[in-house]
Design a protein that fits this description.
The chain is mainly alpha-helical. The chain is built from eight helices and no strands.
Length: 245
C-alpha cells in the first residue's frame, strides 16, 4: 500500500470538488435538523443529556452507516468504474479520500450535531421558559479505573460498524446499505446465539477480580480493533482488484 502525496491531495481535492454541493447541502440539512430537533424537544420538556440524546445517538449511528455504505457508490455503474480506474494515482490515493470523507467526515458531523442539539435545547428553554439549563453531558457514570476501557469498546464497536459498511460498499456498490445490513443482522444473531450458549454451558469456578476484568476488556478491545483494521484492508484490496465489466 503506497501513496503519492501529490496524487493523494489532487484526488482528495477532485473528490471534494465533485461532491462539494452534495456535502454542503447534506451538512446544512443535518445541522438544521439538529436545531429543529433541539427546539422541539426542549419545548416538550427534554433537557440536555436526557433520552433525546439517546435517540439522537441511534439516528446519528444510522447516518454514519448509510454514509459509509455510499463510499464507493460510483462503482455501481460501468461509467463510474471506468472513471474511477482512469483517475491518476494508486488505489490508496483513490481509497483514502473517500473513506476519510464518509467515515471521518460524517463522524465529525455527528459529533457537531449533538452539541448543536444540546445548545438549541438550552437556548430554547432559556428564551421560552426563562430556565437556563446546565451544559450536562448526561453520560453514564463510569468509575475512573474503567473509563478508558469503556470508551475503547465504544470506539472499537463503532469502527467495526463503519468498516463493515465500507467493505460492503466495495463488494457490492449497488444497494450496499441493505445488503450489508442483512449481513450485520446475521452477524448479530450468530454472536448473540454463541453468547447465549456459552452463558448456559460454561461454568466459572472462581471469582474474577477487577484487574482480571480490565485485562479481559483490553484483550477484547484489541481484538476488535484488529478486526476493524482487517475489514478496512479487505475493502482496500477489493477496490484494488476491481475490473470493468
Amino acid at each position: 500500500m503506497k501513496t503519492n502525496q501529490s496524487y493523494f491531495w489532487l484526488n482528495t481535492r477532485k473528490y471534494l470538488v465533485e461532491y462539494q454541493k452534495t456535502i454542503l447541502i447534506f451538512s446544512c440539512v443535518y445541522i438544521g435538523f439538529c436545531i429543529i430537533s433541539g427546539i422541539w424537544t426542549a419545548l416538550l420538556g427534554a433537557t440536555p443529556g436526557s433520552a433525546s440524546e439517546g435517540v439522537y445517538s441511534f439516528f446519528a449511528g444510522l447516518l454514519c452507516a448509510v454514509a459509509a455504505s455510499l463510499t464507493f457508490n460510483e462503482l455501481s455503474t460501468k461509467e463510474g468504474r471506468i472513471s474511477f480506474l482512469m483517475i491518476p494515482g494508486t488505489t490508496l490515493d483513490k481509497y483514502l479520500p473517500r473513506v476519510l470523507t464518509t467515515v471521518v467526515g460524517t463522524t465529525l458531523l455527528a459529533i457537531v450535531g449533538v452539541y448543536v442539539l444540546r445548545g438549541s435545547q438550552i437556548l430554547t428553554s432559556g428564551l421560552a421558559y426563562q430556565i437556563w439549563l446546565p451544559w450536562d453531558t448526561g453520560a453514564i457514570t463510569v468509575n475512573e479505573e474503567g473509563l478508558a476501557e469503556g470508551i475503547g469498546i465504544l470506539v472499537a464497536l463503532y469502527l467495526f460498524n463503519e468498516a463493515l459498511f465500507v467493505l460492503g460498499s466495495a463488494i457490492w456498490p449497488k444497494k450496499s446499505f441493505l445488503k450489508t445490513m442483512c449481513v450485520f443482522i446475521i452477524l448479530q444473531m450468530v454472536i448473540s446465539l454463541i453468547g447465549f450458549i456459552a452463558a448456559k454451558n460454561i461454568t466459572i469456578g472462581y471469582s474474577i477480580s477487577p484487574s482480571e476484568v480490565l485485562y479481559i476488556a483490553r484483550t477484547v478491545i484489541a481484538f476488535i480493533f484488529i478486526i476493524d483494521a482487517l475489514l478496512f484492508f479487505w475493502a482496500y484490496k477489493r477496490i484494488e482488484h476491481k475490473q470493468v465489466v
